[in-house]
Amino acid sequence: MKPNIQAWPRKHASTFPNPQLHLPESLRHQTIVTAQMEEVASSLEYAKHKTKGTPAQILQAKIFQPTEHLPTFMARYGTQHLLEKSLLKEKGYFGHFVHDSAAPKGFRLWHPSEVVLAHGLADVMHIPNDFILANKIVGNMIAVQHALYLLTNTLPSLNGSQVNMMELFDKFRLHQFGSETSHLFPVTDGHMLIKRNMLLLNDFCDAAQQILTWKHEIPMHAVWTPKHGLIEMERIHQLTMPRPSAPPPSSQLTDAEVDIEDTLPDTLIWQPLIRGEVQMEDTQHMFWYSADLPGHVIAKVWDHAFEVNFQGVDQATTAILKPTTSFQERDHPTERCCAVLLIEQELNLISVEPKVALLKQHQISSVASTLYDQFGQIAVFQTASFDAVLTDRPLLHQKTRIDLVYLIAAFRQVQICIFERTVDHAVCFSFQGPEQSQQAVIEFWNTTCAEESCSLLGRRSEIANDTLSFAPCSHDGIAPPTAFKLALAICAARTLLDQLRCEEPDAPEVLLKWDSRPLWRGALHPSHDIRTIAMILCHALFPISKGKVYRIVSKGKQQAPETTMECLRSTNQQPAPIVLFAVMEMHGGGAKQQQKAIQQNALATAFLEQGHPLDWTAKTVDSIVDKVSLHRLQSITSQPKKSTRIQSLMQLCEELKIQIPEPPKPQSRAKKKEELPIQLGEFTLVNAFFMNEDGSPATQIQGIRPQATGAAPILKENQKLSSDELAILVVGHQYPENVPSDELTAITIYKEDWPDHTWMEAVHSTSAFIRKVLQTDQLDKSLQAIWGRSLRNGRSPASPNEAISIQVHATIDSASFGKLLQKSGFNKLYLTPKQQTGRPTSEYRIIWLHGECSVPKAIAISAQTSGCAGLVKGKNGALGLRYPQPAFDAAWQVINPKIAPPTDFQGDQLFKIENLPFGTSHQMLSAWAEANQWTCKPFRALGPTSWLVKAADAPPAGLLMFNTSPLLIRLIQSRDAKKTRLVLGPRQNPTYQSGPEADPWAQADPWSNWKPARPALQATAPVARNLEGPIEAKFDSQEQKISAIRTELDELAQKHEKHAKAVQEEFAIAKQREAEEFSKVHYGMKKIQSDLDNNLANTMKQHSQAMEQQFRDLKALFQQSQKRSKPDAGDDPME
């Protein structure tokens, strides 16, 4: 029977993860390329396969990037250049290097630890310090992937077990070591390659000591593993063989079987807790943590205020936390995989699943029957959080004897600063203000948390001078500072809100939530407003928010400060509690100068809307911004109601003693009539309808020009353009017969499709550029007219340098429109057919291509279908193919054969539906329309309670309801819906059919056929007329203003010349003064120099004279002749 061989899970990739490690200096020294090694590697004599090239090219071919496909690593890697020359000539030099800019030559050898990471590693490994031995081990090592492949295909034939190779390799890649997640841990005679934040247990240390003792020379019939150490093959055979269900009765339990039982791993899921310690200057606090928690998770519990140092398990304390001043990891996106428990005066950090509820995890639910955090009993769905401390008893708050009004007044007079004392990590409050108010605030914070709850969190209160501190108790269960401050803030909020509790039976019940947890619940008086609650939260939650303002959200929107509880009361028969959400105000959004400019614009807008003059507004805004803080200005300008905002601004001006002028009264203006949307260039006056004075037909001119005579169709306001204006406008209701039959379309060009020089040509000469592109397909003559160029950057108008797209409108000959549309998109000119009203036509439909489809692929897809009308580019560069309505379904079946084609909704009326329930979705609105028998298609949400829908007919008559809410449905008129074409010409008089009988009086009346005779006029040339209209008056006024400006400029130029002359004179005087001072200084320096020279010469002369006199005296002494006296007779001769 042929075995079922599973294929190798190939990974198609051009690059691979970088295996380079941050090596110590001692290990980097081992990877330096020597001169002999470089000489052999660049030699043509030792090149593989007789490679041709210069030595530099041969050497460069052996240098690889760390993410490229790498050659094989040999056991003699790093020392292959020392082999015999004959062997190198025969086999070639197989060494290679890695590019490293920090290396002396720009490249270096691979370190064995990096080779292991490149091969693949899923467990720890020992790397000896001996570079040759380490390369020998790595070069002869079987890769993990190869071993997995062989074992997976061998196991079914041994024990019949089936292993999915793809799942096995996915698990291997999940546990695979990487350069970013691992590091080298120094041990005796080498380094251990381990993952970061890994704790080396005793078993592992003993196993590592065994391999160091054997020096990597494992004896025969034995295997070494990091978990079990050195194991003999017989014991491995016993461990892997299946055990009998019941041992024979005559067998005895031997020592060998006892050893086997001891080496078997424990299969129960349990978490060993290891002891840790927080060390500070004066105190030490003990805690317990799960062995699999990494260091950055433990540090996150204390907000990274401590640095974690791991020790070996042979020590009593395996993790020591010491204070640090490094704040680089405070914003680390740490996964919430740790639960903080404070049970029986012991702080425990338990490893949990971050996305699984705490009560569904056995290690948490088995601690106590009921668990509480700072907010109260934990919810069923609640997950882990670093700020939450789980206890077996609830935290209680105390009532204060100080009245709420007096306490709020004291809060406003006292400045509070909260900090953590570095000596013992106590939470401290510092107060500054009037003594009476200060004592009230200290008493409140000291008594707000019950004494037993404070002791449960391992803290006690101490008052010294103006400081209130919550220092750690003597026992070991100390809550982290952040968790304690959270508990203190919750107790303070409940203490203050209890004083607002109303005992009246009809008082509305309020549920206040903070951070999606219930902060307080109780009845409040209907007259209490949002401003009171926000003010209490600002003071009570100071330990967490540092005095920031809170916004109150209810019913899906922010409530105004003056909103009362009565306004928020439910109108249902079964009243539900009023749910309020406390949300901290948003901060940030730009630099201080940018925020200052925003507030200046907001203030200026508010003043100008009230009609104040511009010069006064500019001065007032500058004065307010200089004297008032940005925080207060933001609180004023962000108020939702305009009346409240204006009232606050007026009060601010009174405080700053700024006089507010009376705004001018608004003048009543006549409502301007809407101008008729008429394009005058499309119409022609009837010939001879307008006549000149001499009886000749007046010629049509396009506008009034100087020295021009004729009839001009003009649509203006009721203003007289000239003194002899004789034109008249006749409005008809029929379209002219000579309307052109061209097609209207929009042409879009994108910057990303063209080179830079071609794009600049398109920006500067768009019309010529489009005709040039169409000329390649001989379609340039199909363009009739181009107008309306628009430069865009996204949806915003842009300058030519910043534009990324250009769009123009054009009319195209109907005969060539179909051919031009088929070429569109593929020639990088994207066309959008439009109706005469400007909207896209509904004659075509688009099939969007899924995924990141390229233009060549879109061309290939379009070739498989028939009737393609061009390529379309949508938002974010998405591509689609345009098809006429008859060819859409057939093309859809070719492109998306497994998906049903979308239905074509033919409705062209837009309706706006308002007052929908909050958060109504597309499916909900479609179901409602179907239930009310109204065919419509929702296509855009205008907000949480309003939608735009498209329909073919009006909604059903009557009041439409969504659940219990009445809906407001309005028809949205198109901007071009009211535009109609007008024609010019004589008004046709109604014709009457004559009766069968003639008029008898017409024959008897001699004057019935009389017509006045026109006098013959002499043909004279038209006399030029003097046109004195408002245009000439405007020109005269402009000339006067220009002359006045010129006069002022001349005066300014004269003043400037005088000023320049004065400045030149001042410079000349200063230059002369500087020259005089310089001459004085120069003369003084010369005098000082001469005095110094004279004094030095005199001194040297005197010194030389003294020296000469001393030498003369010495010479005289030497020249004196001393005569020796004869010896006495009694003296003995000297021998």
Description of the molecule:
The structure is a single chain. 34% of the residues lie in helices and 18% in strands. The strands form 11 sheets. A 7-stranded mixed beta sheet has the order 11-12-9-10-14-13-17, covered by helices on one side. A 5-stranded mixed beta sheet has the order 23-22-26-24-25, with helices on one face. A 5-stranded antiparallel beta sheet has the order 29-28-30-27-31. Helix 21 crosses helix 22 (614-627) and helix 21 (592-609) crosses helix 23. The longest helix is centred in the C-terminal third of the chain and has 90 residues, at 1030-1119. The radius of gyration is 48 Å and the shape is extended. It starts with 24 loop residues before the first helix and ends in a 16-residue tail after the last helix.
Overall residue-averaged pLDDT value: 79
Major β-sheet strand ordering: 11-12-9-10-14-13-17
Percent of residues in helices:
25-40%
Query: Ranges with pLDDT <50 over ≥5 residues?
Result: 241-269, 327-331, 669-676, 715-724, 729-740, 977-985, 991-996, 1017-1025
Overall radius of gyration: 48 Å
Organism: Cladocopium goreaui
Region (Disordered): 1-21, 1115-1135
Keywords: Coiled coil
Protein name: Sodium/hydrogen exchanger 8
